Amino acid sequence: MSCPYHWKNLEDSAKPRAKCYFGVQTCCSLFAVFMIVFIVVIFPIIFLDLVASQVVLTNGTLSFEQWLKPTPKIYKIVTVYNITNPDLVLAGGTPVLAAQGPYYFREYRERVNVVEVYDQELWFGEKKWYEFDYNTTNNNRSGPPLDPVKDKFTTINLAYVGVAYNLTVSGTKLEIAGAIAAAAREHEQTLFMTKSVNDVVFGYKDKFLTDLKIFMPSLADTVQLVYNMSSRDINTYSKILNGGRNISNLGQYTQWQGYTKLPYWKTPDAAMINGTEGLFFAPNLDKNKTITTFVDDLFRANPLEYFKEEEVMGLKTYKYRIPKYVMMNATNNPLNEGFYAYGPDGMMNLTAAVMAPVFASKPSFLDAEPWLQTDIKGLPPADNETMDTNLWVEPITGALVKARKQLQANIMIMNLPIFPHFDKLRKAPRYIPMSNIVETGGMDEDLVNTFKGKVFTPRDDFTIGLWVIFGLAVFIGGVFGFLQCRHIKKNQRDGSLLIPNEGSKIAPGGDSRDNVYRSV
User: Fold this and answer.
1) For residue range 241-258, what is the model confidence (pLDDT) as tens digits?
2) ∠ CA(485), CA(487), CA(490), 5° rounding?
3) Which of 189, 277, 461, 466 is deepest in the core (most CB within 10 A)?
4) Dist CA 111 CA 517 (whole Å)
């Protein structure tokens, strides 16, 4: 007689459910892996493309709005040096200086007549002007109030020194040089002058130079120490690349104030016009690469190298400084021969650009040859933390967050026997500081918040959303994995069931539970 029952393994009946659990878990796992790849690899690329579209200098972007008419405050802070012992200097003695200032001048910029050229260049004029900020200058000041119009100081006679030096080094015939020297005596020209701060900073007409135009018609009769602080002729156009075709060229000058190459310098590389004005750089900065700014005050481009990371107003920034090789003379850095860097290390020769022996340095001759500091009395000690030029740039967008640019303007004097008052000077050149100029600028708090809202808040919100989706995928996969494991363990514990064969009958009055016998 055949048995009315047979054994059936529970795992056979659970296979469809187990397959369902496994399929869901596998899909969730694969989705989680995809999300990790998307968040870590793909999304940063998409975000950088989004950033590039926002920083391009085209109508409607935040970068264009700020370039067109910058809203944050930009200051030129000027300290002048009064020579307290001019008679002793004439006799060959050491100059003693007394700092006067600082004077705060608010800078205003506006681009005008902007024309987009071939969807890649912006052609524009620029209005730039300065206003003296009396309150900022005199806030918390204990002494008499400062006023650049009324305040005067004694410094080197830039017009006379420039004429004497240029006639000497240019090899002008002695007869002509002698005639000009005689004119200097007639005009009672001396090595020094006493002028107002406003005159020296913004320029003044010099009667001696006006009279010399008889001999030298091309001679300019306006004297100004800082070219960049004069009013701009809006009919002299500049061009920059807008980054539309190549984002790495964002903001790069191709023409400056009508020049496509600079006429002052000796070599083609030195005469090149490149770099940005420093408001922005190409996005996604590389710490191992320099960034370049074109500096109006120096009539040249300057590279800056990465120094360290710093947080500014809640933004992570890269801090940049001028590398020392930029300030080396041509002996120590042959590339600087194009800039006539034949003086000491730490000095930039601007003679060819301003037609006077003006040399730019860092304040207090920072990073320059030590004898320059000991050759002058009255300068504060050189300090890297407070006197170096620094730019803080947000690395993802390339936007300038904060800037502090600093330079010291120095006049070189030396023995020039033909000209009155030069004959008693020492033969070795001496570099006398005239002024220290600090330019500050960058984003204010409102612009930082706008910047964060348009760039980083959407990125952070989207990233959080992606991680939430990733977390859900992991959770769902984990739940189904747990159910699968539980199901497998239950099957392993229960083993198999003894169930009736088809067509078999259960004894009357019996309970189905009595007819089921589990294996042990």
Assistant:
1) 999 888 889 999 999 988
2) 110
3) 189
4) 94
> CA torsion, points 135, 137, 139, 142, in degrees to nearest 10?
-130
Closest CA to 352 of 112, 162, 176: 162
Measured CA distances, 48 to 250, 285, 368, 457, 460 (Å): 14, 11, 40, 14, 14
CB 73 within 8 A of CB 444: yes
Location of structure tokens 């009396």: 134
Question: What pLDDT sits at residue 329?
Answer: 96
Measured N-to-C along each axis, helices 457-494 and 43-55 cross at an angle, to the nearest 10 degrees, of 170
Cα–Cα distance between 274 and 260 in angstroms, integer? 10
Helices within 154-217 (DSSP H only):
158-169, 174-186, 197-202, 207-212
Q: Report which of 262, 199, 209, 263 is spatially closest to residue 230, judged by C-alpha positions.
A: 199
Q: What is the pLDDT of residues 266-302, one digit of tens each?
A: 999 999 999 999 888 988 899 999 999 999 889 999 9
Residue 197 near residue 103, CB atoms below 8 Å: yes
| Residue carrying the six token digits 């004005």 | 277
Task: Give which of 283, 310, 279, 308 is closest to 293, Cα–Cα.
Answer: 279
- Residue 110 — pLDDT band, cuts 50, 70, 90? confident
Q: Which residues pair with 295 in a beta bridge?
A: 300
Rounded-to-integer distance, Cα 400 and Cα 278, Å? 7
Which residues are paired to 413 by β-bridges?
Answer: 430
Distance CA 385, CA 378 (A): 20
Largest Cα separation within the chain, whole Å, is 147
DSSP-derived secondary structure letter, 250: T
26-35, 113-122, 407-416, 427-436, range with the lowest pLDDT: 26-35
From CA 126, how far away is CA 232, in angstroms rounded?
7
